[in-house]
Amino acid sequence: MIDSHCHLNFLNLKNDLLNIIKRCKDSGVSKLLSINTKPQEFENHLDIIKDFKNIFISYGIHPQEINNESILSFEDLEKQIINPQLIALGETGLDYYHSTEFKEKQIEIFESHIEASKLFDLPIIIHQRNSEKEIVEILKKYNNDKLKVVFHCFTGSKELLDFCLENNYYISLSGIVTFKNAFDLREVISKASPELLLIETDSPYLSPVPMRGKVNEPSHVKFIAEYLAKFYSMNLDDFSELTDNNFYKLFSKAKKDN
Fold first, then answer.
1. What is the biggest distance separating any 2 CA atoms in the chain, rounded to whole angstroms?
2. N or C end: fewer C-beta atoms under 10 angstroms in the chain?
3. pTM of the predicted model, to two decimals?
4. CA distance linking residue 42 with residue 232, whole number of Å
5. Where are the domains of the chain?
6. How far apart are CA 89 and CA 196, in angstroms?
């Protein structure tokens, strides 16, 4: 199993990283993708994970971190991209849940991530909150570019799922799918293509059942895999192999034998 989205530089994970890696091994979780949210923190983030060849990292600016001075530096990204552990851009996207104060700047930075994806041939990890329509409109402008995209922590509508299916965009499912009140999400993802599915924890957030109320960590992705294997009427080993292969198809810079 692979946790395709976690935040290992967050305080309650980085301080217990060796134990977290051990629990991953014990749970059959082989690879992790740790998501960067601020370029100014990338070097420190990389320093945390650099000695673990089974941990990858992304480079990006989370939409909630954006202000009028925000910039995605292609020059800095070009320096970092030689590192084999850097395999993705983001998380990026649009988040209008708390505020629309920097709406235009969020759009500008999101489009910068898209241009960087085209230039450096790295997939984009998209964060979407109260912005589904706007994100779709932006992505439609790049329809001819065959972008490599995953909507992380997917909670979108049937229309967004259809849009992803039409464009071969991946969706990543988190512990939210295990929540008792996630009826609408389960109805939507029942129509998803297994060949476009990833699994993630988004740890330290969104602990799945049966770990609700506890700090989430990458080893908990096994509970999401177990739940979804039953949901899609698949054997757990087959489901895990499928989502692992999907991970390597999308994040093609990642190497299986690390």
1. 49
2. C
3. 0.97
4. 37
5. 2-250
6. 18
